[in-house]
Amino acid sequence: MPGTHVELILNCRWLLPVAPVNEAVEHAGVAIDNGRIVAVGPIDALFERFAPNRIVDLGHHAVLPGLVNAHGHAAMTLLRGSAEDKPLQAWLTDDIWPLETAHVSPDFVQTGTELALAEMISFGTTCFSDMYFFPEVVARCAKQVGMRAQIAFPVIKFPNAWCQDTDEGFHKGLALHDDFRNEPLVTIAFGPHSAYTVTDADLERTLMYSEELGLLVQTHLHENQAEVAEAHERLGHSWITHLHERGMLNPSLQAVHMTQVTEAEIELIAEHDVQVVQCPHSNLKLACGICPTEDFHAAGVNVALGTDGAASNNTLDLFAEARLAALLAKHTTGNASAGSSQQLLYRATLGGAKALGMDAETGSLEVGKSADIIAVDLDNAAFFPMYDPISAIIHGAAGASVSHVWVAGQCLYDDRTFTTLAVDDLKSRVRNWQSRIRDGRRSNR
């Protein structure tokens, strides 16, 4: 008897499903139809059961869920390398904010976001969270390219290129939510920049709308010691306590960075099921500190991974974040078993999806989920010999070895070729922006 028709079967050397069991399986595959995973298992059994339109043979690849970059500022790729070797406050006030004031526009965001999407796709990211100006442009880019995204529209008390005040920002952000309400790949969230750049009234308004509409909230929180010290000086307690007093600590909150926390604050975060997003490269580069991920993990807190923006990283390689996070966990605890490869693979995939409220849809290779899948080519010297595919993926050069990317069954990266991005045109536009930004800096000296 002929098998059940499906659109595609991926035939791979190694399968890393992440869930329900986070182990590598040899000679397995994934059957895909209508953009969803319909079966996962031994490849011989899949061929007996299904009749695919197409087979992609990945005989020396690992196939795994697409990575979830749980925090970033995509358009800031255009500021990559523009401000180096400075602490956070000086980096922001002396360089980044003046550059944004001079240059941020819909066209800036369009080009910078497309560049970020190309970079993330090439490194195996299928879902990203973004917090930046002109979020409607970012949302359109994600939809056009075929990426899954959470777009957290900015809430900040300072006038900016996108809105003159928070009233206008809320109006535009809620309209954006209405526009994308039925879009399967793009969800809208609130993005209050930080507790120190948002008024109490706007924090409370964010909470009210979040509860009414069922939307998530992402914010920078306890990024460095100076921020926390300022809170104690101004308020007599931390920003975490400040948010707690306003009801902001809840399962809808995604707290980004969290490098400076006490044991009591970790317990408070755990008690209210707050999601934590670690950005290790950015935090180290800006000398902000290290998120105590193992303490959060021990308390039962879900920890996701983010790259932050390319201006403070300087890459959007989430595999590199996973490796650094593993090494930091081992170093800070003095325990070589901390930050295991399985744990970091989970954080980079299903943990990130959980933080963004998308774990029922993506983050693992399970029947019924969206076919958000990547393939990593293990046929090079950096992966020989192969004893443990998960360890090889986390501690090897996996980002540079991504060969295929699918989102909802659509192939965005086919044997290292982009299918939804015109990369040559994009590079030309990026070079034009580089010239404008460089010339503007020279004229201001």
Helix content: 25-40%
CATH 4th-level superfamily of the largest domain:
Metal-dependent hydrolases
> How many H/I helical runs?
15
Question: Could you give a short account of the major beta sheet?
Answer: 7 strands, mixed
Provide the domain count.
2
Architecture per CATH nomenclature, i.e. the level-2 architecture of the largest domain:
Alpha-Beta Barrel
Strand content: 15-25%
Uncertain parts: none
Strand order of the largest sheet: 3-2-1-4-13-14-15
- The CATH class of the largest domain, by name, is Alpha Beta
Shape: globular
CATH topology term of the largest domain: TIM Barrel
List the secondary-structure elements in sequence, H or E: EEEHEEHHEHEHEHEHHEHEHHEHHEHEEH
Structural class: alpha/beta
Mean pLDDT figure:
96
Q: Count of DSSP E strands?
A: 15
Distance between the termini: 76 Å
Radius of gyration: 21 Å
Describe the structure.
The protein has a seven-stranded mixed beta sheet with strand order 3-2-1-4-13-14-15, with helices on one face. It has a four-stranded parallel beta sheet with strand order 5-6-7-8. The mean pLDDT is 96. It has helices at 43-49, 88-103, 106-122, 135-145, 166-179, 200-213, 225-235, 239-245, 263-271, 280-285, 293-298, 318-333, 341-355, 389-395, 423-443; strands at 4-15, 25-33, 36-42, 50-65, 67-69, 125-130, 148-155, 186-192, 217-221, 253-257, 275-278, 303-305, 373-377, 402-407, 410-414. The radius of gyration is 21 Å and the shape is globular. It has 445 residues and is an alpha/beta fold. Helix content is 40%, strand content 23%. The N and C termini lie far apart (76 Å). It folds into two domains: 4-65 and 370-414, Urease, subunit C, domain 1 (Roll); 67-355, Metal-dependent hydrolases (TIM Barrel, Alpha-Beta Barrel), CATH 3.20.20.140.
